[in-house]
Each structure stands twice: as structure tokens, then as C-alpha cells.
């Protein structure tokens, strides 16, 4: 069955480690689009972070953001779905985690990903790269304020605990009603129950009339595992996490070696599409 949609993660997958889009990758993306293939970024980033590389990658149509919780058109701004974590669930989770780990800090990402409400002390351990936002603009809020409104994504972070260890603690806290993962960044990402990149891209594909078998997906991190397993063809880059590698159908060269571009080049060659040399 021909591929009609490419769903690709960004950080650690499509992008080089310096967060750039290589000329080879841009040429492959453009050739795929010219051949009638939809190219959709599927990312933990919010639209504010995606806009930073959208022009470089040629992204101006649909995107799935916030680990699958938000489906948005990058040009028109149309939102086709937005799933949030409820206030009651957030408060139960924070209360359950308090006796388990001292020193946790929380952030509520809300308002379609534009709002960023960090707990007091969070900016001291954050970097611009973490959330694709200027740390100086983040502000400072009480935990009550952080948890007072539903979140598109609730961030849970500790200054010292490894993120894999923290993810196990969050998942084992005995609270229902949420999904948790991480994207390779130094914090756990909490979404509404049932939300994953696979859930988000499936919703978009339903709208576009595309089946899972017609989707080629790329990823590297634990938050990509469901997407790679769901897609008709799931490709993990060579630098991927164990969870992504286990979920994938195949492994490509790494992000630094333009693994996504190499797979797309072979796919398009099979369809007699010539990619101009960048």
C-alpha cells in the first residue's frame, strides 16, 4: 500500500543535535510533499516551539503537538482537537507525589500551548532549549496557581532525579486519569488519559481519510513508541531510545546522518521521484 502521510518527530529524529534542518532533509521533505505525500510534524513541542523551525522545514499545514494532545493547522490556526488534563486529576497527582519525592516542581502548559505557568523555583533549573522559550519570560507561580486550570501538558520535574526514574514514580503514584511519558528532555510530561502521539495522528488521519497502513512514522524517544507501533511502517533512528527501537519495524541511520531523509529518498525512488541535490 502506498505511503500517503509521513508523521515525523522533530528533536532527536528529524533535526540535527543543534536543532537545525539539514539541506538534505529539507530536499527530501519537499520532494515528498511534491509527490502528494502529507508531511506532518508530530512533536512534544507546542506550536510556539514548532514555529521556530517551521519555515526551515517547510511546515505550513497540519501538526500534532503536545505529545498528541493538540491538532492544529500551522497556517490557518484551525484546531481540530485539544485534550487537557483536568484540575482534579492534576491535584490528586501532585498530592500523591508529594510524600514520594521531595523537591518536585510543576509547570502547566495551557491555552493551546501558548500559556506557560511554572512553579516558583522552576526557572532556576530550566534552560531555553527545554521548552523552546526564553527562561526570563516564564514567570513564577504558586503550586496552587499552576494546578488551578486544566493543562494541555503538565510538566513534572526534579533537579536531580533521572527522568526514567521519575517517570516510573509518576506512573506508580496510584492516581488514575492521565498518561505520562518523556521525550528525552529532563522532565516527565503528563497528558490526558489515553493521549499519545499515536492517538493524535490517528485523529488527524481520520479527518484526512488516511489509514494507519498508509502512514510512515519516524521517532527516537519513549514518547514516540506508540506512534511507531501504530503506523503501517514505523522507523526508529539509530540513536533512538530502547522503547522506540522495540516499537519500530526498522531502524534508519541516526538524526545526525539524516536518517529520515535517507528513508524518504529510497521511498520516493521506488515511486520514480527524483530529489534534486541540495
From TrEMBL:
Highest taxon of source: Bacteria
A UniProt-annotated Pfam family: Hydrolase_3
Assigned GO CC terms: cytosol
GO molecular function, one term: phosphatase activity
InterPro entries: Cof, HAD-like_sf, HAD-SF_hydro_IIB, HAD_sf
SUPFAM superfamilies: HAD-like
Cross-referenced NCBIfam families: Cof-subfamily, HAD-SF-IIB
Name recorded for this polypeptide: HAD family phosphatase
Originating species: Nocardioides glacieisoli
